[in-house]
Amino acid sequence: MPDVAIVGTGQTDHKSRREDVNIPELAREAVDRALADAGVTFADIDAVCFGNMDLFEGLAENEHWLASTFGAQGKPLLKYNTGGTVGTSTTMGAYYLVKSGFYGRILAVGFEKQAEGNSQGAITTVGDPIWERPMMAGAIGNHAVMASTYVADSGVTEEQAAKVAVKARRNACLNPHAHLKLPDITVEQVLESAMLAYPLRTLDMCPTSNGACALVIAADGPAQKLAARPAWIAAVASAHDQSFQGDSPKRMSEMRSLIAVRERLYEKMGITDPVKQLDVAEIYEPQTYAELAMCENLLFCEKGGGGRFIDSGIPEIDGELPVNPSGGVLSTNPIGATAMIRVAEAAMQVMGRAGEHQVKPDVQTALATGYGGNAWSDALILTARQPSR
Amino acid sequence: MAVGGASGVAIIGVALSDRFEPRTQHPPSEIVYPVMRDALADAGVSMDEIGSIVSCSQDIYDGRTISSMGVNEVLGGYLRSEVKIAGDGLLALLYGAARVLSGEYDLTVVVAHCLESISDLHVVENAAFDPYVQRPLGPDESIAAGLQADAFYRASGFGPDDAAEVSAHASEQAARNPRAFRRTPHTAADVAASAPVCGPLRELDGTPVTDGACALVLAAPSRAGDNPVWLRGIGNTTDTFWTDRDLVDTGALRRAAESASAQSGLAASDCEVVESAARWAHEQLMHLPALGLDPHADVNPSGGQLGGCPKYVVGLARAAEAALLLREGATNALVHAPSGIANQQHTVAFLSRERG
Can you give the pTM of this predicted structure? Predict the structure, then answer.
């Protein structure tokens, strides 16, 4: 089975509103940039993998309306629809379709134009219509419950969570595509920002973005021709938690699905000390407390040590293991593209194309994660070294 | 252009809903659980052996974002790799086959479900149209199908009487299949006398509203057991949106069929079983020549989609019906399902008792 690599990435400049473009035009911006980054045209693409939460824009089966936007006419087109993880689900779908030998070069694309819909209204429908939905109010209430249990178990303070918010929005200033750039943000500002649902304040949460992301993914052979330094997809894993919140009451302090994917990835890659063995991590942190909990469960620090981990400076952009040098989800969140942006940013670091937020010239190993659905975790490890060589 | 093929993927477990029929009182989980249970039992494997599940459903039909979450428990998604495709079930089969061929999973379950009966179909179908310039005009899939049928009749020399014969024959086949909805055959005269829908289309030219699910267990050769049906090739091609193309052009279907043929070394003429989904009877007359068959060929022994089978499940159900007939003695089968407004996208697969 051939090795599989990312050879080109493209993103829009993410914003809260893009009234200058319609949905196809928004998606096409990222597609054109990814094709240019890989030095290919639509004629070089064998198949298209597309991810989007169409209900968020009140659409259905939008892969058909958008087929020509992706240059998919005359080609296979697969649509993935998995919530926050959709960008990583789509990337993994492309990975398996290349790994299997079905196709040699795939265009993967995800987008969300939330200003044209009602994402939080749609997210409320993820719960069971009888037992859960009447108590739901979009993502914030759900995350507040999860963050509360994490605070209770870990003793993480509001100040420590605020440091995550500061790190993200300052890193975003180095990323030309990032949405929420706050160069002068302070811990005090975060602590003074409006309370949404305890313990989450406005600046603890990700923004609502409009944007798109695309990747060109290629098999061993074409990959080396299209990129001097491809980002090889060395390992992928995906797992769910229980659907009902009541079946996993400590969902954020015991991230069962993230632990499951971590165990699979680290075993395959021989990772025992991720802070030393990973060069950078782009993780899907919907809010500040989640980043700390995820760092614990990815073994970047000891259990319950998330607060001390951010205090240590290790996850800062110039630290030993930079976490979300792009500014992360806290700075940019076009949902259908968000997880793919994690992969694209990890790939850019491996390929040496991250510009001002490149953490070091020679990134050998990068981790990207996706998070969504009902505590669903995806994770990929990208390497500069070709896996089978 | 495909660079590889599906040779090396076995179908070892098959299950369909007992009968495709409106089940308005059942949530999706109660419709998916029986096919999941039965497919695993048919394959002789336990859930403990499964690491990979590819599901297929549509949010707007389930009234639920990430519709696979509503059935996650019965899919066995907890701590496993379950991923959802939104499209025809044969696309989930393509992705499931890729997971097996990657070498990372020796078993993958592919499951599709849809409940057509719980929605206002005009509203949910309208949501698939261009939201800026088409949706406000009120189109739905029946209107697009009527325009396509009209164009096809004008271009081909076929007419409503030919479609009525297709529908009548499908109802006879369906009446012999306990899983199909239609239990009473109708005649071509019944079709002609049925209520007008859109343009030349009449109610009995079309498929009834049904709910249901289908599951297949896919396996690598090492787990194929002693009664496998082999997926020999699977091709998919999308066309441009319905208003950007000639509605009678079947180039996308031809291309999908060529891809599946190139992978499998099989052609329609090699197949004793053909399951080609048509939501409206004229589609069968349009599509069979593109598959290399006579438009009047005797196809769809199951009764096909015209006998009753919900959208999105339909392609996987065609593969399931074909696999069951291969177990009963046939050698090769061709499976086809379109999806999208006026059949924008096509998937074609060849199944065989021989690995090839």
Answer: 0.98
